[in-house]
Automatic annotation (TrEMBL):
Residues 181-210 form the 4Fe-4S ferredoxin-type domain. One of its GO terms (molecular function) is metal ion binding. It comes from Methylobacterium oxalidis. This is 4Fe-4S ferredoxin-type domain-containing protein. InterPro entries: 4Fe4S_Fe-S-bd, 4Fe4S_Fe_S_CS, SCP2_sterol-bd_dom, SCP2_sterol-bd_dom_sf. Keywords: Iron, Iron-sulfur, Metal-binding. PROSITE patterns: 4FE4S_FER_1, 4FE4S_FER_2. It holds the Pfam family SCP2. It comes from the Bacteria.
Amino acid sequence: MIAPADVSGLPLTVVRDRGERPGLRSDELLALARACGADDCGLVPIEDPALRGEVPHIAKAFPGTGTLLALVGRMHREPVRSPARSVANLEFHASGHELDAIARRIVRRLEDDGIRALNPAMAFPMEMDDFPQRAWIVSHKRVAEAAGLGRMGIHRSLIHPRFGSFVLLNTVLIAADVDRVGAPLDVDPCISCKLCVAACPVGALKPDGYFDFSACLNHNYQQFMGGFVNFVEDVADSRSVADYRAKHSYAETVSRWQSLSYGPNYNAAYCIAVCPAGEDVIGPYRADKARHLRTVVDPLRDRVEPVYVVRDSDAAAHVARRFPHKRVRFVRQSARATSIQGFLTGMPLSFQPGRAGDLSAVYHFQFTGREAARATVTIRRQRITVAEGHVGRPDLRIAVDGAAWVRFLNRELGLARLFMTGRLRLRGSPRLLAAFGRCFPA
């Protein structure tokens, strides 16, 4: 364990005549963050346009926030690259705990100087009340981008200009203003090598930049959140030990125990592992690309492992086509809609372009009941858009009781029963509803 840094002697000038919030010097605040252990850091004002969507969530957790201090913690590369997932997960957890401790030390020093500050978790625990909707207090990646600490790559992780993808992030919310803030990078560290696309076992990353969120969630996070809920329901639904074992192997059950005991384990972080970007990382790749493929990429691609996918999904087809040596394990969708808003928000995340095929249609949804809403869903050229209200001329109108629709999505009600009880009404071809359903295998 790294000993806490003694930062009591570092200068921290506090100016009290700047309106509602006190003022701090940027250079002193950044020096404090580095002395507390941050490998890099940057500052963003709460008014930054890039954080507009974050402000309501930040204000709810910590009213009075004036400045966000973005923190970068470097991970060790070789453990993350290891095909032994226990080694990689140990690095993620150890680095994450260290980054949380760094943020806590910063908050303590600020508090000692009369400055209010808050350190949300680097990852978990989160605010899970509305899961699977947003659970995090602040998007560390958005803050780090705005502070000029990197840019998100095709793999949706931040690429730091020096440390590459081998970083974890945190943010300290500070009820103070500063005299100087950062700015986004002018140069993108991503080198567009597409190795993250090649290494992803479920094809969540596409060459054109499309991201299949549900494929990543169902496999990489199978030990987390929604996957755990499905596991508990399988236990409750099993008629006998034999029935349970038909659903979960002995090794999978032990893996659940390990995740509960030592922190949830990622099944893959291959997109990060194979990324050669970053000044400290790219040298060996440029010197010998074939060796990088042989020693870093191939061991992960060749690894025989269970791959968790939803039946009839794009991910299932990808594994069968690209990784026939891996063991396909069919699971239920990890992310579920628990509300109509969750259904509308989640559609673009769970949409399957391959399953959509040549479907071209506009759907008008009319949800009635306590969560009344209207929405337009357009599926065209294997892409989906969801708009509030009714826009344009629909090919199919769907009027349905909102609560009943959520129960249908969670397999608590059948489609036939919705029709028979009058809670679901269509104007247009029912075939379009079936085509819509194929885009969201569960």
